[in-house]
Automatic annotation (TrEMBL), chain A:
Belongs to the binding-protein-dependent transport system permease family. CysTW subfamily. It is found in: Cell membrane. The lineage of its organism: Bacteria, Pseudomonadati, Pseudomonadota, Alphaproteobacteria, Rhodospirillales. CDD domains: TM_PBP2. Coiled coil: none annotated. PANTHER family: INNER MEMBRANE ABC TRANSPORTER PERMEASE PROTEIN YDCU-RELATED-RELATED (PTHR42929), PUTRESCINE TRANSPORT SYSTEM PERMEASE PROTEIN POTH (PTHR42929:SF3). This is ABC transporter permease subunit. The chain crosses the membrane at residues 21-40, 86-113, 125-145, 175-197, 218-240, 274-295. Residues 89-295 form the ABC transmembrane type-1 domain. Pfam families: BPD_transp_1. It comes from Azospirillum isscasi. Keywords: Cell membrane, Membrane, Transmembrane, Transmembrane helix, Transport.
From TrEMBL, chain B:
Its EC number is 7.6.2.11. It catalyses: ATP + H2O + polyamine-[polyamine-binding protein]Side 1 = ADP + phosphate + polyamineSide 2 + [polyamine-binding protein]Side 1. This is Spermidine/putrescine import ATP-binding protein PotA. Gene3D superfamilies: 2.40.50.100, P-loop containing nucleotide triphosphate hydrolases. The gene is potA. The keyword Transmembrane does not apply. The keyword Signal does not apply. Part of the ABC transporter complex PotABCD involved in spermidine/putrescine import. Responsible for energy coupling to the transport system. Keywords: ATP-binding, Cell inner membrane, Cell membrane, Membrane, Nucleotide-binding, Translocase, Transport. It holds the Pfam family ABC_tran. The complex is composed of two ATP-binding proteins (PotA), two transmembrane proteins (PotB and PotC) and a solute-binding protein (PotD). Residues 24-254 form the ABC transporter domain. One of its GO terms (molecular function) is ATP binding. Belongs to the ABC transporter superfamily. Spermidine/putrescine importer (TC 3.A.1.11.1) family.
Amino acid sequence: MIDLLRRIGLWGRGVVVAIPYLWLLLFFLVPFLIVFGISLSEAMLAQPPYAPLVDWLVDEDAGTTKLQILLNLSNYLRLGGDDLYILAYLNSVKIALVTTVCCLLLGYPMAYAIARAEPAKRGPLMMLVILPFWTSFLIRIYAWIGILKANGVVDNLLQWTGLTTEPFELLYSDWAVYIGMTYCYLPFMVLPLYATLEKLDPTLLEAAADLGCRPWKAFLTVTLPLSLPGIIAGSLLVFIPSVGEFVTPELLGGPDTLMIGRVLWNEFFANRDWPVASAVAIALLLFLVVPIMVFQHVQGRQTEAGR
Amino acid sequence: MAVQPIRKPTRLEPWQDPGQKPYVRIEKVTKTFGDFVAVDEVSLSIYRGEFFALLGGSGSGKTTLLRMLAGFETPTEGKIFIDGVDMAGIPPYERPVNMMFQSYALFPHMSVEQNVAFGLKQDGVAKAEIAERVGAMLDLVQLGKFAKRKPHQLSGGQRQRVALARSLVKRPKLLLLDEPLGALDKRLREQTQFELVNIQEKLGVTFIVVTHDQEEAMTMSSRIAVMNHGVIAQTGTPTEIYEYPQSRFVAEFIGSVNMFEGRVVEDQADHVLIRSEDAGCDLYINHAVSVPSNATVAVAVRPEKIALSKEPPANADGRNVTGGIVREIAYLGDVSIYLVELKTGKTVRVTAPNVVRRTEMPITWDDEVYLSWRPFAGVVLTQ
């Protein structure tokens, strides 16, 4: 009886573990392999618009059938050869980096203040950080258009105070993209930072003060190094989606705001060049896997140190 | 419980010498948190080189008082002077004081060495000197081999010694210790008590230690202030606190005690006689008390000062002698605790050393016994 239960228990555990793995296999690994396959094929006017990788060549004269696998690396070579792609990658990284730094500079004091607030106030304050997520992302971006456009809230305010007499438009510039993306991704920075700062033992700061350390220096030597896991987690959570961001720069950015997300969009929908678009996506992925692995490595070390 | 203070009495103790200036002076300090009064008009003088214990239960205000000395809390009222300097408005990082935290508060991202060096770095001490002083301090606490380890790789006792080294390396004139031995197991605690006292005597630093453990306070300190509900119930040497408690609270907090209620019938310069229904006999005590005649007082008699016998003691004049029946015996190895029910119904606790083996002991359950004690044994509690 016990033996049977144990076997059922093991089986039950197997199911629980298998479900997420199956999910990942079906909806992550398989699509990834499909995209990877497309990136190695050739574009053609067909339905779907690319040449099959694997083909059966039937030689009727000889009466044989041959298996043909055509791997086309030229899509990747094109990425390296065309300035457009390299510039788009670099520009995406630049915008993502600026966004990450802005989020960090804004989010750290926020997370610190919330973590140091009275315990009863922390919940509501955290709620306020998450609250914007309850409305649609697009609505919030449209709201920013209203704020930043010529004759919008910012412009009117500036003209009213007399700081400028000319109509002043922030919209359709890199600035608008920075503002919009920082706004969107700020909670992703605040949440992990808050989690690490809240766990930080305040007596460590008392100990530092007791040993003659001024508050500002105690922040640099104790708080900052101990919140590093939160900084890394938050930065990656902001940086990685920022690199591939499409909607915000599309709506707030100018015509010259070149990001890899837009290039991808154009390749897929304007050029209908699925293989190149897939290659762009795969390259972007490889490019982002490196920071993720660094993060995993640091996290692994941290958990080890926490033991 | 009979803890011998390990301190040898030397010369005139500083607190008895009117010419001595206190190193730490606490003047009518009050600290309130909202409606709660944590420390209530406490005044204390602590002298250079003392090992001073603040003893009390949780919520007695002892830790708050310590934190005010360190500068983490500001007194609501009153003043604190350290070495003659008013500490009002002086932040923790500018006080000539170091603290050893109850949780040790070691920096988890720094090695043992870096933890100990931290304070010296803040003062801009030269690198070579830092290395030398850190090395010497780690040797003192016997952690030289562990210099490169991180705190999480150390045992509780080792962490405690890192914390001690870190707080001593700056050579503070005053070291505050918040439950320094609280996280250690019993055996390690006893061993560390002696180490702490040795280090304190070697370095000549003034120690103020907060503890809830009366045994710890008795063993280590030169003087103890017993705190209760934010006020100091009594200050004195361990012997004074144990032998001459002034209040019921102190008598009951330190060790165990038998309490007899009685009425003063004779109050002379050299003795006092108290008639106690409770004890079932007259209590004769060879010191005077200044209470009005007929006043009701409490008399404390320590369990180890009561003798048990099956025969009535010789030259008994009916004073300090009473009888009862042994109800419980607890054998603790070195001593046994007897709970004796008096004829008056009161239960008295008696401890006696086990001079003979348990099996040969003359007194056993339900024996009728006599309890007697000498005139110096009782203490009249005036508060």
